[in-house]
Write a structure and sequence with these properties.
By secondary structure, this protein is an alpha/beta fold. Helix content is 42%, strand content 16%. It has 2 domains: 135 residues, Aspartate Aminotransferase, domain 1; 219 residues, Aspartate Aminotransferase, domain 2 (3-Layer(aba) Sandwich), CATH 3.40.640.10. It has 15 helices and 14 strands. The strands form 3 sheets. Strands 2-10-9-8-7-3-4 form a 7-stranded mixed β-sheet, with helices on both faces.
């Protein structure tokens, strides 16, 4: 397939496009959807073949095949990330949002504090609040142009009511790939303060040349008795609609606690999610991902360099993901004026940085998972919208 093919997703029940005007005020008729974190590429042939196989069987009843799917997950994690994980440690959930909620239900009580490093994926805060737990923000700091954790500041702020660190690796919205040393330092912090570490690693395959994602369970093997790993094929292969995530719990005692909640909620995977995940985690899937990352790398280099040339705008260097994080602080404008220019003048619909928590107030997140021609158009519109700053 060609990643350059422009696909009109309007009217296809794509939330990214068909809900854009309601959510952002930008019409899909003349706007570019750059908010919801999915990609505007056609599904690859191996996923289409898997779906055709379902059609050919003409049977959508109760099904088997979950063990084989988990074997494919284990193969992928070993081959792509050097992480040996047993299928017996895995649970299939309704996506990773569901996984986060179940982890909070299993390992915390109402009123417990959950640490997150902000700005971070907004659903972390939403899930914590919905579960009646308490969000404890630990603001990231910028050093050498990228976000860093400030564990000393976090330690000084502890109340004693914290039970969990909910961690995003690689980082969304800024695409930070954490180093082995940073991961080990966080694991040691959790050990010192008896905190569970839930690591959401959904973007782990979308890492750019010169960077390497290290699973938390690999970086800190001595901490696996307190680590919960969250993964999914959904972001890499754009199959979020299949609603399947994987919770891996290496420690037997923690696994028993999670299994009790899992069984009580009667959670089981759906047929399409199992079939697509198994098809994705395959040699054909690996070849496609390598091509995808090369394409996204070209997109992000072009976008970041172009944005940095616009006075007042600054894009954080991208180490992973297709989500660009742009700071508008130096425009001297209020964010109301910035968003008016971006949405009404440029007709672009990014995500508002404020929803990602402290540190995101003056930023917007732009989704670059689209054909390069559309990224080029987005850059041209940004330049025009802020041309008076030239």
């Amino acid at each position: 397939m060609s990643f350059d093919q422009i696909i009109d997703r309007r009217g296809s029940n794509s939330s990214k496009w068909d809900l854009m005007e309601t959510a952002t005020g930008v019409s899909p008729d003349d706007g570019i959807a750059m908010w919801v974190a999915d990609m505007d590429f056609a599904a690859p042939d191996f996923l289409q073949d898997a779906v055709r196989g379902l059609l050919d069987k003409a049977n959508y009843g109760y099904f088997s095949g979950e063990p084989e799917m988990k074997q494919a997950v284990a193969w992928w994690m070993q081959e792509r990330h050097g992480w040996t994980v047993s299928p017996d440690a895995m649970f299939s959930t309704f996506g990773l949002g569901n996984a986060i909620a179940m982890c909070l239900q299993a390992f915390t009580d109402p009123g417990d504090e959950v640490i997150i490093f902000t700005p971070v994926y907004h659903e972390f805060t939403n899930k914590i609040n919905k579960c009646e737990r308490v969000v404890k923000e630990s603001p990231l700091v910028i050093r050498d142009g990228v976000y860093r954790m400030d564990l000393d500041a976090l330690e000084a702020s502890l109340s004693g009511r914290e039970r969990v660190v909910l961690f995003c690796s690689p980082h969304n919205p800024a695409g930070r790939v954490w180093s082995r040393e940073e991961l080990r330092a966080l694991a040691a912090f959790c050990a010192r303060h008896d905190l569970l570490l839930i690591s959401d690693e959904i973007h782990h395959d979308l890492v750019y040349p010169g960077q390497k994602h290290i699973p938390m369970a690999v970086a800190a093997p001595d901490a696996v008795n307190r680590v919960i790993m969250l993964t999914s094929a959904s972001k890499t292969f754009n199959i979020a609609g299949a609603r399947l995530g994987i919770v891996s719990v290496p420690d037997e005692a923690l696994r028993t606690r999670f299994a009790a909640v899992f069984r009580a909620l009667d959670v089981s995977p759906n047929l399409l999610g199992v079939v697509l995940t198994q098809a994705a985690y395959s040699p054909r899937g690996a070849e496609w991902v390598d091509a995808l990352v090369r394409y996204l790398d070209d997109n992000q280099h072009f976008f970041v360099n172009a944005v940095d040339e616009i006075p007042g705008l600054s894009a954080m260097p991208m180490q992973s993901t297709y989500l660009a994080w742009v700071d508008f602080t130096n425009t001297g404008m209020s964010m109301d004026e910035v968003t008016t220019r971006v949405k009404q003048t440029a007709r672009l619909a990014p995500s508002m940085g404020v929803v990602f928590g402290s540190g995101g107030e003056n930023c917007l997140r732009f989704n670059l998972g689209m054909p390069q021609a559309q990224v080029t158009t987005a850059v041209e519109r940004l330049r025009a919208a802020f041309s008076d700053l030239q």
